[in-house]
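To whoever picks this up:

The nightly regression suite flagged Glyco_hydro_31 as changed. Nothing in the input moved, so I suspect the structure step. Input below, exactly as stored in the fixture:
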Amino acid sequence: GDCVTFDAMNPEARDFIWDVCRENYVQYGIDFFWLDNSEPDYSVYDFSNYRYYLGPALKVSNVYPLLYTKAFFDGQKSTGQADFVNLVRSAWAGSQKYAARGVVRDVPSTFGAFRDQVAA
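Regenerated output under the current build:
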């Protein structure tokens, strides 16, 4: 379906994404996330034209997964959540600091696959 890639390097964008997730998931008791598209995955890989809050994609793209997970870590901490871990499709050095665990990519979106990823 339609999707949008947000600029995880922009603190205001991270706050916005968390606000949307809090409103649509957390308030209903969902407190664990399987974060997808954290590379991010573009339909056209034209990195010389992509720009982020921190600079040109060719220079700063590797930090994207780290700051993507930071958005959720900061948000979950702000709700008082103490113990949590999120699954993330793409991780970077330091992602564990933000309670993120890298998962095997391209697994089915089923509860069985989810269970297997958490147990791994």
